[in-house]
Amino acid sequence: MSINNIWVFAQADGDTASTATLELLSKANRLGGSVTAFVVGSAGGAAAAFADHGAAKIYETGDLAGALPGPAVSSAMQAVISGGDAPDLIMFPQNYEGRDVMARLSVKLDRTVLTNSTDITVDGDSVTVQTPIFGGSKLVNSTFTGERPFLAAFRPKSFEAAGGAGAAGEIIAAAVGELGATGGATVTAVHVEETSGPKLDEAAVVVGGGRGLGDAEKYEMIETLAKLLKGAPGASRAIVDAGWVPYSYQVGQTGKVVKPTVYIAAGISGATQHMVGMKGSKNIIAINKDKEAPIFGVADLGIVGDVHKVLPQLIAALQARG
Amino acid sequence: MNVIVCVKQIPDPALPGELDPSTNTLKRDGKLILDESDSYGVEMALQLVNTAGEGSVTLVSMAPNDEVSGLRTALAMGAEKAVLVSDPALAGADALTTAKVLAGAVGRAGDYDLIIAGTESSDGYTGTVPEQMAEILGLPSVGFAKTITVDGGTVKVDRQTEAGYDEVICTLPAVVSVTAGVVEPRYPSFKGIMAAKAKPVDTVTAADLGIEAVSWAQQISSVDDAPAREAGEVIEDDGETFNKIVEFLDGLKVI
After folding, report:
1. Is B195's Cβ below 8 Å from some Cβ in A?
2. Does A205-321 match A5-183 at the fold level?
C-alpha cells in the first residue's frame, strides 16, 4: 500500500506561493508517490511554483468570498475524497488556516491529527512524525495507527524548499459544499500592519526583546539595533501579551519560527515557548542579567549583564562604525 | 448571554515537564493549575456577560483524577458552575477525542450563546480542539480573537493573522478562540475564592456523555534527546562586553 498519494494544503498571496507550502510540497515530493496541492482560493500565478516544487496536480477551491477557510476548504477536500481521489497523507502548514482546515477535516473524516511536527519518515506503510517538546530538548516520534488519510501539520522551516520538480499538471476546481451554520463567519475587512525592513522570518539578523527590557518604551532599543544590523525586531510572548508590540513580532511556539544567521536575545530568559521559535538560529547571542537563565544554555555568546547598559553601548559602537 | 468557557488544568509550567516512562505521555500526577491561556477566555466571558446584563459563565474541562484546583480558580474569578469530565480511560487522549469529550460536556452545560476557548493549551498545544469542537457541534468558529463584541445574534471578532488582523462577523452560537493578552484577567477576590468552594462542579465520565470505546489512532513510538546545542562562552558584563558582541558579529560578517 505504502504512501502513494500525498496532498499538501497550499496557500498563495496573490500570485506568490507561500514559502511554507513550497517547503511541504518539496518534502512530499522527496517522500515519493504523486503529490497534489490543494489550494485555498485560486492557484493563479502561483501554480507554476507549486508544480516546480512537486505538485503534479492542483485542486483549487476558488474565491471563498470572505468565508473562513476551515469549514470551506475541509468541505471541498471531503468532497474530492468521497469522489474517489483518496490521499494517504495530507500535510498542513502549522499556521492559522492550516490548522483550522485540518481540525475541521479531522472531524469530518474521524481521523486523529499530529501537529507541530518538524520531520516525517515513511517506512513502508508506516508514517512517523517527529515533534519537539520541552523547548526542543526532547523529540517525540509518533506513528499513525488508524485509517488513511493521515493528517499532519508541520512547523515552518522544517524542510528545504527545492524547485525543479517538473512541469505544471492539471488544475481542477474543487467545489465548496453547503456549509450550513458552520459557514456563519465572514471576513468583512482585512488590516495589514505595515513593517519596514526585512520580514521577521526571513531576516539574516533578528533582535528579540523580552520582559527584561522593563517597559514598553525600552523596546525602541531593539528596533534601533535591528535597523543597524539590517535585521528584524522580534519579541517574546511575554511582551506581546503585555501589549508592548503587536503579535506579528512574536517569536516562539505560538509565533514565528526564525532561523537567522544571528539571533540576539535581549532581556529574554528563554522560556520553552520562546526557545522553540529561535533554537534553530545559526548563532545566538544572549544578554540577560540572570546568569541562570535557560537562554544561556543555547547561546554561543552569553553576556550576563543589564540590557539597559549593554544595548546602548552596543548601539553606539555600531553607529560609530558607520 | 450564556457563555461556556473551555478550560484546561495543567501541570505548573514553571516546573520542568516530565514524561511518564511507561506511556511517554506528559506526567500530570502533581497539582494542576488553571492554564494561564484560559484565564483570558474566562475574563472575556465574564466581561461579555456583564455587558449583556444577564446570563452566566459555565466552565467545561477534562482532567484526570477529579482534579478541580484549576477550576476553582476560574470559579473564583466569577464563573457560576463547571462540568468536569474525569476518566482514567481518557489519559493521553488525542485532540479529536478531547474535542468529542468537551463537545459532550457542552451538552450538559445548558443553553449557551457562545463558547470560548484558548487558541491552544500551554502544555499540549495541538491547537485544533476549538475548531474540532465547532465542527462536532455544527457551529461556526473564529480563531485567534483579539477582541470580541456581541451584538444581538452575531459576534464581531478582530482575528489575528500573519500580516495583521481581520474583522470577522459571525452568527451565534459560535466557538471563538482567544489569544493571550486580549484582556487583563482579574485576580480572584477573597470573597470569590470562598464562594467558589460552594459552586457546583458536575463530575462525569466519558461513558456518562455517551462516549464509549475511547481510542485514538496514533502511538508514540519513541522519544529521543534532541542533539544538544552547545552552550558557548558566557561572560559577566564588565562594561566592555559590548565589544565582544561587535567582534562576534564582525566574525560572522553581518556588519
Report:
1. no
2. yes
> Is B226 a member of any domain?
no
Query: A205-321 belongs to which homologous superfamily?
Result: TPP-binding domain (3.40.50.1220)
Question: Domain segments of chain A: what residues?
Answer: 5-183, 205-321
Instruction: Locate the chain B residue with the closest alpha carbon to A285.
Output: B245
Q: Give domain status of residue B255, yes or no.
A: no
Residue A104 near chain B (CB below 8 Å): yes
Judged by CB atoms closer than 8 Å, whether chains meet at A190 and B164 is answered as yes
pLDDT, tens digit, for every residue of A235-290?
999 999 888 998 889 999 878 889 999 999 999 999 888 998 999 899 999 999 99
User: Can you state the percent helix, strand and coil of chain B, rounding each to 5?
Assistant: 30, 30, 40
Q: For residue range B83-93, what is the model confidence (pLDDT) as tens digits?
A: 999 998 988 88
User: Is B151 an 8 Å CB contact of chain A?
Assistant: no
In chain B, how many domains are there?
A: 1
In a domain, B34, yes or no: yes
Put simply, whether A134 touches B (Cβ < 8 Å) is yes
A116 contact residues in B (CB cutoff 8 A): 125-127
| CA geometry: angle A272, A277, A280, nearest 5 deg | 110
Kindly report, residue by residue over A86-138, the tens digit of the pLDDT: 999 999 999 989 999 999 999 999 999 999 999 999 999 999 999 988 877 78
In sequence order, which residues have a C-beta less than 8 Å from that of residue B113 and are 6 or more positions away?
B1, B2, B3, B55, B150, B172, B173
Query: Which secondary-structure segment (H or E) carries B132?
Result: helix B129-137
Alpha-carbon distance A112 to B33, whole Å? 27
CATH of the domain at B123: 3.40.50.620
Q: What is the per-residue pLDDT across B119-162, written as a single tens digit (0 to 9) for each?
A: 888 888 888 999 999 999 999 999 999 899 999 899 999 998 87
CATH class of domain segment(s) A5-183: alpha beta
Nearest CA in chain B to A100: B131
Among residues 70-89 of chain A, which lie with CB inside 8 Å of chain B? Answer: 70-71, 74
B146: distance to nearest CA of chain A, Å? 10
Q: Looking at the complex, does the CB of residue B121 fall below 8 Å from at least one CB of chain A? A: no
Query: What's the CA gap between A35 and A212, in Å, rounded?
Result: 47
Question: What ipTM was reported for this prediction?
Answer: 0.91
Distance from CA of A300 to the nearest CA of B (A): 4
Structural domain of B185: 3-209
Q: How far is B197 from chain A (nearest CA, A)?
A: 30
> What is the value of pTM for the model shown?
0.90
The answer to whether residue B99 neighbours chain A at the CB level (below 8 Å) is: yes
CB-based contact (8 Å) between B92 and chain A?
A: no
B93 burial level (CB within 10 Å; 0-12, 13-18, 19+): buried
B242 and A314 in contact by Cβ < 8 A? yes
Tell me the three cell numbers of residue A14.
Answer: 496573490
Phi, psi of A14 (to 5 degrees): 65, -120
Flag if B242 and A310 touch (Cβ within 8 Å).
yes
State the Cα angle at B249 between B243 and B251, rounded to 5°.
Answer: 100
In a domain, B22, yes or no: yes
